[in-house]
Structure formats: structure tokens, C-alpha cells
Design goal:
This protein is mainly beta. It contains one helix and 30 strands. It has one helix spanning 11-23, and strands spanning 36-37, 44-47, 78-82, 88-93, 98-103, 108-114, 119-124, 130-135, 140-145, 151-156, 161-166, 172-177, 182-187, 192-198, 207-209, 215-220, 225-230, 239-241, 247-252, 258-263, 268-273, 279-283, 292-293, 299-304, 309-314, 319-324, 339-341, 347-351, 357-361, 366-371. The strands form seven sheets. Strands 1-2-6-5-4-3 form a six-stranded mixed beta sheet, with no helix packed on it. A four-stranded antiparallel beta sheet has the order 7-8-9-10. Strands 11-12-13-14 form a four-stranded antiparallel beta sheet, with helices on one face. A hairpin with a 4-residue loop joins β5 and β6. The longest helix is centred in the first third of the chain and has 13 residues, at 11-23. 50% of the residues are buried. Mean pLDDT is 86; it is low at 1-41 and 51-55.
Length: 373
């Protein structure tokens, strides 16, 4: 693994670092326009303002066609983040121009944040007071305050910025760039990139940080591999695990000895023993895009996009516990990677393709409510 050099493939990332250095400041700070008041049932809409030199000017040929929204990355995905205090859920997909904010307790949509082109990944800060969103078409990662839902910081990380991972203390961000085949390391305390790592192949949404923060697991969609980056020695060549088929998402357990990967082309979850290299395949539903591990590590949920189901896997013996389907209390619609768990692992929130959120009872494997409809 080498740090950034002036190669054609990484010029986007070089430009981002140079812009920060020349500006003499780590970020540009601004707020969105005053929110447009709506009825109490619909909340309000706020619009992200133009950040001048830090805003990519993107011409969208046909915004109704997902593949035309982003000229840098021909891929679609969705994302959902639930605040650590479990009060707010923020969701979007890459063919939307806005983020949806939902009050988890009431189930009501309370805001829309407009002004995006291809939003890719959302992460909450540990204190629940803000969240970040990446936009691959605009080439930025924004930080948005939950107080008024205004952008407070903008990091220009280059067109193609996609999946993100964050350290548990909220001090470090790791951002994939699917166009430049890089991962940018960002110091969130000082709001500046510190390293741009190269040698990846279409790193999209799937990137996870080990529980202790020492290793970064990066999906390489273009090669069907996962790269394991030693963050204590970033210049070292990363270990790779391959032979995945349609690699979409990964999870790693707290002990750091098991990796779970969704294979959308073979309809299975791969379970990799990271100590021995042993591999087990668990057959799930049609086109699994998600592989979300519960906080207590006992259950893995696969989001099966093509058949509108979730498969629950027992991580103790890799057996299938059962399947979550649409029921009288709500429907699953195209579940992908966007799956979040409650801290007690008893509830899962799953994003639907219409940007509503299905609330799932994990023990009973049933949809109990639809939020944001």
C-alpha cells in the first residue's frame, strides 16, 4: 500500500488535498438556506447552499434515470443511519436529490435536506449531534447538524467519494473513492485529510473499521476482493481476500476473527475465519446486498434486494434462523445495504426503496411498523 503520488488515477484526490492546503483552512463553513416551513405532519425542507469553489458543478442529463445522476460512478446504492441515542434516522439513495430525516419514536418524517446529486453514505457522530453524508457526484463529504439540519462543514474529497467508515470515538473518517481507486484518511478533529491510500479497485459503499480501530476492511467491487489495511502501518501492502461474486457489503465481528460478505451474484453470505482462512457459504435470498451484524454479534441480517426479504443468520453455527417478509404491519421494498440495529440488538431498521424505513422485531422476524410513510 502506497501513499498518494501524482498519477492519473489519483489526480482527483490530489486536487482535494491541494485545495485544502491553498485555502489555508481545513474546511469551508456555511449553513443552508432558512428552512421552508411545511405542515406539522410533513416537517420542513432545507436546501444546501452553494459552497463556491468547494462545490462540484454537476450536469445531470436525466435526473429520473439513476445511471445518469453520477458521471463518475455507474452504480446505485442506499444508506441509512440511526443516531446512537436512537431518536433520529437519516436516509437516502444515490438517485435522490435529498436526505430524509425521520423521528424514530413517532415514526414521522420531520425534514428533507435537499441539494444533493448522488448521496452515498451517512454516518452519525458518536454524540448524536451531527452526521456526515458523502456525495460522489459533488465530490464532497458534508457534516450536518441535527439542530436545524444545516451543513456546518464541507470536505472536498474528490468526485467519486463513496463509502465511509468512522472510528468509534468519532475522530477519524475513512472515505472510499470508487472513481480514483483510493481511500482518504480524514482527521475529523482538525477537519483535514492526512493520507490518501492507493491500490484499490472500485471501492464502493462497503468499508468497515475493526472494533479496535487498527484495521480497515475495504471492498473492491471491481475484483471481488476485500483489502485489509493495517492502519498502524499504512505503507504496508494490505492482505486481500478474494473469490467473492458480486461483492456488495461486509461486516466484521467485535473479536476481529470473522468477516461476513454479501455475494449478490451467488445469493450467499460468505463467512471467513480470519485466523485460519476457512470459508463457509450460507445461502440466503435473491441478490443479497446487505450483511449487517447485530451489536451483540449473534445475528447477521442479509438484505435481499430482488425478493424483498431479509435472511437472519445465526452467527454461532452459520445456520439460517428464518426469513423476514412483508406482513400486515408493513412491507419490505428492495432492501439493500442500509440496515441498522438498536443497541440492544432487538430491533432492526431497514431502508425501503421509497425512503421509508421498515422497523423489524429481530427475535420474532417480523416487520412491526413502517416509519416515514
Amino acid at each position: 500500500m502506497k501513499r498518494l503520488r501524482t498519477t492519473r488515477r489519483t489526480m482527483i484526490a490530489t486536487t482535494a488535498l491541494a485545495a485544502l492546503a491553498l485555502s489555508g483552512a481545513a474546511v469551508t463553513t456555511a449553513s443552508a438556506d432558512a428552512p421552508e416551513k411545511k405542515s406539522s405532519s410533513k416537517g420542513f425542507t432545507t436546501t444546501v447552499v452553494d459552497f463556491g469553489a468547494y462545490t462540484s458543478k454537476v450536469e445531470v442529463e436525466n435526473p429520473e434515470e439513476p445511471e445518469d445522476r453520477d458521471p463518475t460512478v455507474d452504480a446505485t446504492n442506499n444508506t441509512l443511519a440511526v443516531s446512537p441515542n436512537e431518536r433520529l434516522a437519516v436516509a437516502t439513495n444515490s438517485y435522490s436529490d435529498h436526505l430524509v430525516v425521520i423521528d424514530v419514536r413517532s415514526g414521522r418524517k420531520i425534514a428533507e435536506i435537499k441539494g444533493y446529486v448522488s448521496p452515498r453514505n451517512i454516518l452519525f457522530a458518536p454524540d448524536s449531534k451531527s452526521f456526515t453524508v458523502s456525495d460522489s457526484a459533488r465530490g464532497v463529504v458534508d457534516r450536518i447538524s441535527v439542530f436545524g439540519f444545516r451543513v456546518t462543514q464541507r470536505l472536498p474529497l474528490g468526485a467519486g467519494v463513496f463509502g465511509t467508515a468512522q472510528s468509534r470515538d468519532g475522530k477519524w473518517l475513512y472515505a472510499n473513492n470508487a472513481a480514483a481507486d483510493t481511500v482518504t484518511v480524514v482527521d475529523l478533529v482538525n477537519n483535514r485529510p492526512t493520507d490518501v491510500l492507493t491500490g484499490f479497485h472500485e471501492p464502493r459503499q462497503g468499508t468497515k473499521l475493526s472494533y479496535d480501530g487498527d484495521k480497515l476492511y475495504v471492498t473492491n467491487y471491481g475484483q471481488g476482493q476485500v483489502s485489509i489495511v493495517d492502519l498502524k502501518n499504512k505503507d504496508a501492502e494490505p492482505e486481500t481476500i478474494g473469490e467473492f461474486k458480486g461483492l456488495r457489503a461486509v461486516s466484521v465481528n467485535r473479536a476481529g476473527d470473522r468477516l461476513y460478505a454479501a455475494n449478490s451474484e451467488s445469493d450467499e453470505i460468505s463467512v471467513i475465519n480470519l485466523e485460519t482462512g476457512a470459508r463457509t457459504g450460507v445461502h440466503v435470498g435473491d441478490k443479497p446486498y446487505g450483511a449487517a451484524l447485530s451489536p451483540n454479534g449473534s445475528v447477521l441480517l442479509s438484505g435481499n434486494m430482488a425478493d424483498d426479504t431479509l435472511t437472519a443468520v445465526n452467527t454461532k453455527d452459520n445456520s439460517v434462523i428464518g426469513t423476514v417478509k412483508s406482513g400486515p404491519k408493513g412491507a419490505l421494498k428492495g432492501p439493500r445495504q442500509a440496515i441498522s440495529f438498536s443497541a440492544d440488538s432487538k430491533t432492526a431498521w431497514v431502508l425501503n426503496d421509497d425512503l421509508t424505513v421498515a422497523e423489524v422485531d429481530v427475535d420474532n422476524l417480523e416487520v412491526t411498523d413502517i416509519l416515514g410513510d
